[in-house]
Design a protein that fits this description.
mainly alpha; two-stranded antiparallel ribbon; 65% helix
C-alpha cells in the first residue's frame, strides 16, 4: 500500500481501527506480520508507528516471552530514524517477517477499545510546538532511551509495560498533535525511571 493510499490516523480509535484492518480477512490462526502492520499505516506515520508497539507492549500480546525485548528493538529503530531525520521508515527483513496470529491481534485491539473513545475525548491539537520540529526530536530521544532499557526491564515480569506505556503516550501525542500529552508523557517517563531505579 502506498503512502498516498494510506490516511494517517489522528487519534487512538483510528490507530486501533487500522490495526484491526491488518487482521481483516484472515482466520484467527493466520499470521499477521510486522510488514502487514507497517503497510496498513504507511511508511511516514512516525507517531502511529511509535504508538503501535507501545500499545502492543501493554496488551495481552506482551505476555508472550521475548515480545517486550522485540518491541524494544522496533521502538529503538523507529525513534533512531526520527532522530536522524528520515522521512520514510525502514525495518530489516528479520523483523518485518515476525508475526502474530490474526486472532491474538484482534483480541488485543478489542481489549484496548473500551479506553479509546474516552482517551480521544481528552485529545485535541494544542501546544503543537511540543509535538513538531525540535520537540519531535526530543520525544524521539526519550523513546530511544526507553526502548534501549526495555530488554533489561523485561527481565522483571510485566515491568516492560511501564516504558511501553510511556512510549505509547509519546506516540499518541505526536499522532494527535497534543502538546499537553507530551508533557504528561514526560512526567510518566520520569516516574517510570524512578520505578526502574527502585527495582534494580
Amino acid at each position: 500500500m502506498s503512502d498516498a493510499e494510506t490516511a494517517e490516523p489522528k487519534d487512538l480509535e483510528a490507530v486501533l481501527n487500522t490495526l484491526h484492518s491488518a487482521a481483516d480477512g484472515n482466520h484467527d490462526g493466520a499470521a499477521v506480520t510486522v510488514e502487514n502492520i507497517l503497510d496498513a499505516f504507511g511508511q511516514r506515520s512516525f507517531g502511529p508507528l511509535l504508538l503501535v508497539p507501545g500499545l502492543i507492549g501493554i496488551s495481552p500480546i506482551a505476555a508472550i516471552p521475548g515480545v517486550p525485548a522485540f518491541l524494544g528493538v522496533i521502538e529503538a529503530l523507529i525513534a533512531g530514524q526520527i532522530l536522524i531525520g528520515l522521512t520514510h521508515f525502514w525495518l530489516p527483513r528479520a523483523l518485518t517477517a515476525r508475526s502474530v496470529t490474526a486472532g491474538r491481534l484482534r483480541k488485543s485491539v478489542n481489549a484496548l477499545r473500551p479506553y479509546a473513545h474516552r482517551v480521544d475525548n481528552l485529545l485535541r491539537p494544542r501546544l503543537t510546538v511540543l509535538t513538531r520540529g525540535t520537540a519531535a526530536y526530543v520525544v524521539a530521544f526519550f523513546c530511544l532511551v526507553l526502548a534501549i532499557i526495555m530488554p533489561v526491564i523485561a527481565l522483571v515480569p510485566f515491568a516492560g509495560m511501564v516504558p511501553n506505556a510511556a512510549i505509547a503516550a509519546f506516540g499518541l501525542a505526536l499522532t494527535a498533535q497534543d502538546g499537553v500529552l507530551t508533557i504528561l508523557a514526560t512526567l510518566f517517563m520520569l516516574g517510570s525511571f524512578a520505578m526502574i531505579l527502585n527495582i534494580f
